[in-house]
Protein backbone atom coordinates (compact mmCIF):
# COMPACT_ATOMS: atom_id res chain seq x y z
CA UNK A 1 0.00 0.00 0.00
CA UNK A 2 1.35 3.43 -0.97
CA UNK A 3 2.19 5.76 1.89
CA UNK A 4 0.14 8.95 2.17
CA UNK A 5 3.14 11.08 3.03
CA UNK A 6 3.46 14.12 0.77
CA UNK A 7 6.94 14.60 -0.70
CA UNK A 8 8.10 18.15 -1.36
CA UNK A 9 10.24 18.01 -4.50
CA UNK A 10 11.92 20.75 -6.52
CA UNK A 11 11.05 20.47 -10.21
CA UNK A 12 13.30 21.96 -12.90
CA UNK A 13 11.41 21.36 -16.16
CA UNK A 14 14.35 22.54 -18.28
CA UNK A 15 14.15 23.89 -21.81
CA UNK A 16 13.74 22.47 -25.31
CA UNK A 17 11.85 19.20 -24.84
CA UNK A 18 12.31 19.51 -21.07
CA UNK A 19 8.85 20.88 -20.22
CA UNK A 20 7.13 18.19 -22.35
CA UNK A 21 8.95 15.21 -20.84
CA UNK A 22 8.76 16.71 -17.35
CA UNK A 23 5.00 17.16 -17.65
CA UNK A 24 4.62 13.56 -18.83
CA UNK A 25 6.67 12.23 -15.93
CA UNK A 26 4.82 14.32 -13.33
CA UNK A 27 1.51 12.95 -14.65
CA UNK A 28 2.77 9.38 -14.32
CA UNK A 29 4.19 9.96 -10.83
CA UNK A 30 0.92 11.43 -9.62
CA UNK A 31 -1.04 8.55 -11.19
CA UNK A 32 1.02 6.16 -9.05
CA UNK A 33 -0.77 7.34 -5.94
CA UNK A 34 2.30 8.91 -4.32
CA UNK A 35 1.57 12.46 -3.18
CA UNK A 36 3.88 15.29 -4.27
CA UNK A 37 4.12 18.99 -3.56
CA UNK A 38 6.09 20.35 -6.54
CA UNK A 39 8.11 23.56 -6.44
CA UNK A 40 8.85 24.39 -10.09
CA UNK A 41 11.67 26.71 -11.22
CA UNK A 42 13.30 27.66 -14.50
CA UNK A 43 17.08 27.43 -14.99
CA UNK A 44 19.45 28.46 -17.77
CA UNK A 45 18.57 30.89 -20.56
CA UNK A 46 14.86 30.93 -19.66
CA UNK A 47 15.65 31.83 -16.06
CA UNK A 48 18.01 34.59 -17.17
CA UNK A 49 15.25 36.20 -19.23
CA UNK A 50 13.00 36.28 -16.16
CA UNK A 51 15.38 36.84 -13.27
CA UNK A 52 18.70 37.98 -14.82
CA UNK A 53 20.24 34.91 -13.17
CA UNK A 54 20.89 31.52 -14.77
CA UNK A 55 20.10 29.79 -11.49
CA UNK A 56 17.70 31.92 -9.42
CA UNK A 57 18.36 32.07 -5.70
CA UNK A 58 14.81 30.76 -5.18
CA UNK A 59 15.85 27.53 -6.95
CA UNK A 60 18.88 27.12 -4.70
CA UNK A 61 16.71 27.73 -1.64
CA UNK A 62 14.11 25.21 -2.82
CA UNK A 63 16.69 22.45 -3.20
CA UNK A 64 18.19 23.33 0.19
CA UNK A 65 14.73 22.97 1.75
CA UNK A 66 13.48 19.89 -0.06
CA UNK A 67 16.78 17.97 -0.45
CA UNK A 68 15.39 16.33 -3.62
CA UNK A 69 14.99 17.64 -7.17
CA UNK A 70 13.79 16.24 -10.49
CA UNK A 71 15.43 17.96 -13.44
CA UNK A 72 14.67 17.94 -17.15
CA UNK A 73 17.35 18.75 -19.76
CA UNK A 74 18.81 22.28 -19.76
CA UNK A 75 20.76 23.58 -22.77
CA UNK A 76 24.46 24.25 -22.14
CA UNK A 77 26.09 26.59 -24.70
CA UNK A 78 29.14 25.18 -26.52
CA UNK A 79 32.37 27.18 -26.61
CA UNK A 80 30.96 30.19 -24.77
CA UNK A 81 27.96 31.52 -22.88
CA UNK A 82 27.01 30.61 -19.33
CA UNK A 83 28.53 27.75 -17.33
CA UNK A 84 26.86 24.35 -17.26
CA UNK A 85 23.79 24.39 -14.98
CA UNK A 86 24.42 20.70 -14.24
CA UNK A 87 28.00 21.24 -13.10
CA UNK A 88 27.06 24.32 -11.08
CA UNK A 89 24.33 22.49 -9.15
CA UNK A 90 26.55 19.47 -8.52
CA UNK A 91 29.29 21.65 -7.06
CA UNK A 92 26.88 23.83 -5.06
CA UNK A 93 25.24 20.89 -3.29
CA UNK A 94 28.31 18.62 -3.16
CA UNK A 95 26.57 15.94 -5.24
CA UNK A 96 29.71 13.86 -5.38
CA UNK A 97 28.28 10.66 -6.89
CA UNK A 98 26.89 10.44 -10.39
CA UNK A 99 24.95 7.19 -10.64
CA UNK A 100 23.82 5.72 -13.97
CA UNK A 101 22.41 2.21 -14.26
CA UNK A 102 22.58 0.79 -17.80
CA UNK A 103 20.05 -1.99 -18.37
CA UNK A 104 18.07 -3.20 -21.38
CA UNK A 105 14.33 -2.66 -21.47
CA UNK A 106 12.38 -5.81 -22.38
CA UNK A 107 10.97 -5.84 -25.89
CA UNK A 108 13.50 -3.34 -27.23
CA UNK A 109 15.99 -5.09 -29.49
CA UNK A 110 19.58 -3.84 -29.45
CA UNK A 111 22.94 -5.21 -30.57
CA UNK A 112 23.77 -5.97 -26.94
CA UNK A 113 20.93 -7.83 -25.18
CA UNK A 114 21.09 -8.47 -21.44
CA UNK A 115 23.42 -5.61 -20.48
CA UNK A 116 23.34 -4.75 -16.76
CA UNK A 117 26.02 -2.22 -15.80
CA UNK A 118 26.37 0.37 -13.06
CA UNK A 119 28.38 3.51 -13.86
CA UNK A 120 29.56 5.41 -10.78
CA UNK A 121 31.37 8.65 -11.52
CA UNK A 122 33.10 11.14 -9.26
CA UNK A 123 31.15 14.34 -9.76
CA UNK A 124 32.98 17.25 -8.15
CA UNK A 125 36.53 17.48 -9.49
CA UNK A 126 38.84 16.43 -12.34
CA UNK A 127 38.98 18.15 -15.74
CA UNK A 128 35.20 18.17 -16.15
CA UNK A 129 34.59 20.94 -13.61
CA UNK A 130 35.94 23.46 -16.14
CA UNK A 131 38.69 25.21 -14.18
CA UNK A 132 40.45 26.89 -17.09
CA UNK A 133 41.90 30.24 -18.08
CA UNK A 134 43.83 31.91 -20.89
CA UNK A 135 47.49 32.24 -19.89
CA UNK A 136 48.38 34.45 -22.86
CA UNK A 137 46.44 34.94 -26.12
CA UNK A 138 46.23 31.59 -27.87
CA UNK A 139 47.24 29.53 -24.82
CA UNK A 140 44.59 28.07 -22.52
CA UNK A 141 45.37 26.15 -19.34
CA UNK A 142 42.89 23.66 -17.87
CA UNK A 143 43.35 22.39 -14.32
CA UNK A 144 42.68 18.80 -13.35
CA UNK A 145 42.27 18.46 -9.60
CA UNK A 146 42.15 15.03 -7.96
CA UNK A 147 42.06 14.73 -4.17
CA UNK A 148 42.41 11.83 -1.79
CA UNK A 149 39.20 12.89 -0.02
CA UNK A 150 36.98 12.86 -3.12
CA UNK A 151 38.59 9.75 -4.61
CA UNK A 152 38.15 7.78 -1.39
CA UNK A 153 34.58 9.03 -0.96
CA UNK A 154 33.45 7.91 -4.43
CA UNK A 155 35.26 4.57 -4.10
CA UNK A 156 33.44 3.89 -0.81
CA UNK A 157 30.15 4.78 -2.49
CA UNK A 158 30.84 2.30 -5.30
CA UNK A 159 31.86 -0.58 -3.05
CA UNK A 160 29.03 0.03 -0.57
CA UNK A 161 26.54 0.03 -3.45
CA UNK A 162 28.05 -3.19 -4.79
CA UNK A 163 27.82 -4.88 -1.39
CA UNK A 164 24.24 -3.74 -0.74
CA UNK A 165 22.98 -4.83 -4.17
CA UNK A 166 24.91 -8.07 -4.57
CA UNK A 167 27.28 -6.86 -7.28
CA UNK A 168 30.40 -8.97 -7.71
CA UNK A 169 33.01 -6.74 -9.39
CA UNK A 170 34.22 -3.13 -9.30
CA UNK A 171 36.66 -1.84 -11.93
CA UNK A 172 38.44 1.49 -11.36
CA UNK A 173 38.99 3.18 -14.73
CA UNK A 174 42.00 5.48 -15.18
CA UNK A 175 44.84 6.82 -17.31
CA UNK A 176 47.54 6.45 -14.66
CA UNK A 177 50.07 5.21 -17.21
CA UNK A 178 50.26 8.85 -18.41
CA UNK A 179 48.84 10.92 -15.53
CA UNK A 180 50.79 9.10 -12.88
CA UNK A 181 50.10 11.52 -10.03
CA UNK A 182 46.43 12.50 -10.51
CA UNK A 183 45.03 9.24 -11.87
CA UNK A 184 47.58 7.38 -9.78
CA UNK A 185 46.05 8.91 -6.65
CA UNK A 186 42.56 7.92 -7.82
CA UNK A 187 43.44 4.25 -8.25
CA UNK A 188 45.49 4.11 -5.03
CA UNK A 189 42.44 5.33 -3.13
CA UNK A 190 40.20 2.83 -4.96
CA UNK A 191 42.56 -0.02 -4.17
CA UNK A 192 42.78 0.95 -0.50
CA UNK A 193 38.98 1.03 -0.19
CA UNK A 194 38.69 -2.34 -1.95
CA UNK A 195 40.57 -4.00 0.93
CA UNK A 196 37.52 -3.45 3.16
CA UNK A 197 35.30 -5.37 0.72
CA UNK A 198 37.04 -8.72 0.21
CA UNK A 199 33.93 -10.38 -1.22
CA UNK A 200 33.98 -8.00 -4.22
CA UNK A 201 36.49 -8.55 -7.02
CA UNK A 202 38.52 -5.40 -7.71
CA UNK A 203 40.15 -4.56 -11.04
CA UNK A 204 41.79 -1.62 -12.80
CA UNK A 205 41.56 -0.85 -16.52
CA UNK A 206 43.01 2.01 -18.58
CA UNK A 207 40.18 4.16 -19.95
CA UNK A 208 40.93 3.83 -23.67
CA UNK A 209 41.26 0.06 -23.37
CA UNK A 210 38.03 0.03 -21.36
CA UNK A 211 36.16 1.63 -24.27
CA UNK A 212 37.41 -1.09 -26.61
CA UNK A 213 36.65 -3.82 -24.07
CA UNK A 214 33.14 -2.48 -23.54
CA UNK A 215 32.32 -2.50 -27.25
CA UNK A 216 33.85 -5.96 -27.61
CA UNK A 217 32.27 -7.53 -24.52
CA UNK A 218 30.33 -5.34 -22.07
CA UNK A 219 29.32 -8.41 -20.06
CA UNK A 220 32.78 -8.68 -18.47
CA UNK A 221 32.00 -5.58 -16.35
CA UNK A 222 29.65 -5.08 -13.42
CA UNK A 223 30.31 -1.77 -11.61
CA UNK A 224 32.55 0.82 -13.27
CA UNK A 225 34.18 3.43 -11.00
CA UNK A 226 35.44 6.48 -12.88
CA UNK A 227 36.76 10.00 -12.56
CA UNK A 228 34.51 12.82 -13.72
CA UNK A 229 35.37 13.27 -17.41
CA UNK A 230 35.97 9.56 -18.09
CA UNK A 231 32.63 8.78 -16.45
CA UNK A 232 30.80 11.27 -18.64
CA UNK A 233 32.21 9.73 -21.82
CA UNK A 234 31.94 6.07 -20.83
CA UNK A 235 28.39 6.39 -19.50
CA UNK A 236 27.23 7.79 -22.86
CA UNK A 237 29.02 4.98 -24.67
CA UNK A 238 27.29 2.42 -22.47
CA UNK A 239 23.90 4.04 -23.05
CA UNK A 240 24.20 3.00 -26.69
CA UNK A 241 24.13 -0.66 -25.60
CA UNK A 242 20.52 -0.33 -24.46
CA UNK A 243 19.10 2.08 -27.03
CA UNK A 244 20.59 5.50 -26.35
CA UNK A 245 20.47 8.46 -23.99
CA UNK A 246 16.71 8.80 -24.39
CA UNK A 247 16.27 5.72 -22.22
CA UNK A 248 18.82 5.72 -19.40
CA UNK A 249 18.35 7.36 -15.99
CA UNK A 250 20.76 9.46 -13.99
CA UNK A 251 21.14 10.57 -10.38
CA UNK A 252 23.46 13.05 -8.68
CA UNK A 253 23.78 12.09 -5.03
CA UNK A 254 25.30 13.78 -2.01
CA UNK A 255 25.01 13.50 1.75
CA UNK A 256 22.55 16.41 1.98
CA UNK A 257 20.71 16.50 -1.37
CA UNK A 258 19.98 14.56 -4.54
CA UNK A 259 19.07 15.63 -8.09
CA UNK A 260 17.57 13.11 -10.50
CA UNK A 261 17.85 14.01 -14.16
CA UNK A 262 17.60 12.91 -17.75
CA UNK A 263 21.13 12.63 -19.14
CA UNK A 264 20.22 13.55 -22.73
CA UNK A 265 20.17 17.01 -24.28
CA UNK A 266 17.32 19.47 -24.70
CA UNK A 267 16.76 18.65 -28.41
CA UNK A 268 15.39 22.08 -29.40
CA UNK A 269 14.80 20.85 -32.96
CA UNK A 270 11.90 18.66 -31.79
CA UNK A 271 10.65 20.83 -28.91
CA UNK A 272 6.92 21.45 -28.85
CA UNK A 273 6.15 18.68 -31.34
CA UNK A 274 4.94 16.03 -28.86
CA UNK A 275 7.43 13.45 -30.16
CA UNK A 276 10.11 13.39 -27.43
CA UNK A 277 10.66 10.20 -25.44
CA UNK A 278 10.20 10.76 -21.66
CA UNK A 279 11.65 7.35 -20.70
CA UNK A 280 15.02 8.64 -19.46
CA UNK A 281 13.47 11.18 -17.10
CA UNK A 282 10.81 8.66 -16.09
CA UNK A 283 13.40 6.04 -15.13
CA UNK A 284 15.27 8.78 -13.26
CA UNK A 285 12.03 9.45 -11.39
CA UNK A 286 11.90 5.75 -10.49
CA UNK A 287 15.35 6.17 -8.91
CA UNK A 288 13.96 9.21 -7.09
CA UNK A 289 11.06 7.17 -5.72
CA UNK A 290 13.50 4.59 -4.36
CA UNK A 291 15.51 7.40 -2.78
CA UNK A 292 12.27 8.55 -1.10
CA UNK A 293 11.60 5.00 0.18
CA UNK A 294 8.61 4.63 -2.14
CA UNK A 295 9.75 1.20 -3.31
CA UNK A 296 6.28 -0.15 -4.13
CA UNK A 297 5.44 2.79 -6.40
CA UNK A 298 8.88 2.56 -8.02
CA UNK A 299 8.34 -1.14 -8.77
CA UNK A 300 4.88 -0.45 -10.21
CA UNK A 301 6.06 2.32 -12.52
CA UNK A 302 9.08 0.29 -13.66
CA UNK A 303 6.76 -2.64 -14.40
CA UNK A 304 4.44 -0.34 -16.34
CA UNK A 305 7.34 1.02 -18.42
CA UNK A 306 8.46 -2.52 -19.22
CA UNK A 307 4.90 -3.56 -20.13
CA UNK A 308 4.60 -0.67 -22.61
CA UNK A 309 7.95 -1.54 -24.18
CA UNK A 310 7.10 -5.23 -24.35
CA UNK A 311 3.76 -4.56 -26.07
CA UNK A 312 5.44 -2.09 -28.54
CA UNK A 313 2.11 -0.39 -29.37
CA UNK A 314 2.77 3.11 -28.06
CA UNK A 315 6.51 3.67 -28.34
CA UNK A 316 8.02 6.96 -29.53
CA UNK A 317 9.83 7.44 -32.83
CA UNK A 318 13.35 7.15 -31.46
CA UNK A 319 12.61 3.51 -30.56
CA UNK A 320 10.87 2.70 -33.85
CA UNK A 321 7.35 3.57 -32.75
CA UNK A 322 4.82 6.13 -33.95
CA UNK A 323 3.37 7.44 -30.68
CA UNK A 324 3.98 10.86 -29.20
CA UNK A 325 5.06 11.98 -25.74
CA UNK A 326 1.49 12.32 -24.46
CA UNK A 327 0.34 8.97 -25.86
CA UNK A 328 3.35 7.19 -24.33
CA UNK A 329 2.60 8.72 -20.92
CA UNK A 330 -1.05 7.73 -21.26
CA UNK A 331 0.01 4.15 -22.02
CA UNK A 332 2.25 3.97 -18.94
CA UNK A 333 -0.57 5.35 -16.77
CA UNK A 334 -2.96 2.78 -18.24
CA UNK A 335 -0.41 0.03 -17.50
CA UNK A 336 -0.30 1.17 -13.87
UniProtKB/TrEMBL annotation:
The keyword Oxidoreductase applies. InterPro entries: IsoCit/isopropylmalate_DH_CS (IPR019818), Isocitrate_DH_NAD (IPR004434), IsoPropMal-DH-like_dom (IPR024084). GO terms for biological process: isocitrate metabolic process; tricarboxylic acid cycle. Its EC number is 1.1.1.41. Pfam families: Iso_dh (PF00180). Keywords: Magnesium, Metal-binding, NAD, Oxidoreductase, Transit peptide. Its cofactor is Mn(2+); Mg(2+). SMART domains: Iso_dh. One of its GO terms (molecular function) is isocitrate dehydrogenase (NAD+) activity. The keyword Transit peptide applies. Residues 8-332 form the Isopropylmalate dehydrogenase-like domain. Belongs to the isocitrate and isopropylmalate dehydrogenases family. This is Isocitrate dehydrogenase (NAD(+)).
Amino acid sequence: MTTQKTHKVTLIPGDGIGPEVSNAVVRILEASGVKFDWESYAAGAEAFEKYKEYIPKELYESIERNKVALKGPVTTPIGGGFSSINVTLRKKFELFANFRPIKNLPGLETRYPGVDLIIIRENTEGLYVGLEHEVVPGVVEALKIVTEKASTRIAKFAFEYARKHGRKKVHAIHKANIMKMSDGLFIRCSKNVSKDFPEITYGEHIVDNTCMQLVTNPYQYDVLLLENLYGDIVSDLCAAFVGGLGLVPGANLGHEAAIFEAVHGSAPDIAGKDIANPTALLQSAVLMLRHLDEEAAADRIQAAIEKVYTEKKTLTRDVHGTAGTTAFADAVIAAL
